[in-house]
Amino acid sequence: MLAGARSFARHVVLAVPVLLYAGIPFAVAVAEAAAADGEASITPSEALSRLKSGNDRFSHDAVLGQAVDSARRAVLAQGQSPFAMVLSCADSRVPPEVVFNVGLGDLFVVRAAGEVTDRSILASLEYGAEHLHTPLLVVLGHESCGAVKAASEAAGAGKHVASHGPNLDYLLHAIEPAVARAAKTPEEARLAAAIKANVDLVIDDMLRSSAALRTLVHDHKLQMVGAYYELASGKVLFSDTPHEVTDAQLKRARIKLAARTASASKH
């Protein structure tokens, strides 16, 4: 869980076939080789290690140049094989490709204020997991999240809060459980606690709402991890407890899904 500012320090060296193309920089050759071979064989832990290594470079101002030239674009025109998915806030200060120092085609990114999910976001992530076989999904919250702050202020106003319109009200309502979970946290740390709680609850909600993601997590084909980005330091703190699905949870979820499907068909 993201209850504390704990981060993995583990780094795994990825064994990626390297092709040295004449006239193409080494980093480009590595990227093209990965795209040509596909990322299907990469494990969740290897994908996570790759993100951590990239963020370590970014936060220490030691970023590597990434392949964005015509040679890389030509490779990607043939298809995509992202090694990780990132569901992040829409905040302009948190671009995942930059934060993790990766290039074109490396990440499958979905963004929404407060990482709030709906059916279109779930469908996008299911596509990445099922059809692109991407083994890792990181839900990335961030310091000073405006959406969570607005939800916190709305909760504090109680019944006297003014409507922000149906769409923004929907967004703030979705974040309310995270605000409630952090309510007893000391005031100076409450917003950060709510942001981290929101990340955990978003993952829990996706596992409840998506049979596809739930099954892939149960079968160890997909790992879902929460993370928190510090704006000034540039560091991403990863949860030390990956979300899992037990046999019993999967069975109960399938029963509930069958019941909902049967009920919907009657209407």
Order of helices and strands: HHHEHEHEHHHHEEH
The total tally of domains equals 1
Span of the ends, CA to CA: 39 Å
Low-confidence stretches: 4-39
Mean residue pLDDT: 85
* Cα-based radius of gyration, to the nearest Å: 20 Å
The fourth-level CATH homologous superfamily is Carbonic anhydrase
CATH class: Alpha Beta
- The count of β-strands is 5
Percent of residues in helices comes to 40-55%
Based on Cα principal axes, name the global outline: globular
How much strand content do the residues show?
A: 5-15%
Strand count, sense and barrel status of the largest sheet are: 5 strands, mixed
Q: Which CATH architecture would you pick?
A: 3-Layer(aba) Sandwich
Structural class of the helix and strand makeup? alpha/beta
- The strand line-up of the biggest sheet is 2-1-3-4-5
CATH level 3 topology: Beta-carbonic Anhydrase, Chain A
- How many H/I helices? 10
Overview of this protein structure:
A 5-stranded mixed β-sheet has the order 2-1-3-4-5, with helices on both faces. α1 packs parallel to α3 (70-76) and α9 (211-218) packs antiparallel against α10 (247-266). The chain is globular and about 55 Å long. The protein has a single domain, classed as Beta-carbonic Anhydrase, Chain A (3-Layer(aba) Sandwich), CATH 3.40.1050. The longest helix is centred in the C-terminal third of the chain and has 23 residues, at 187-209. The protein is built from 10 helices and 5 strands, in the order αααβαβαβααααββα. Mean pLDDT is 85; it is low at 4-39. The chain is of the alpha/beta class.
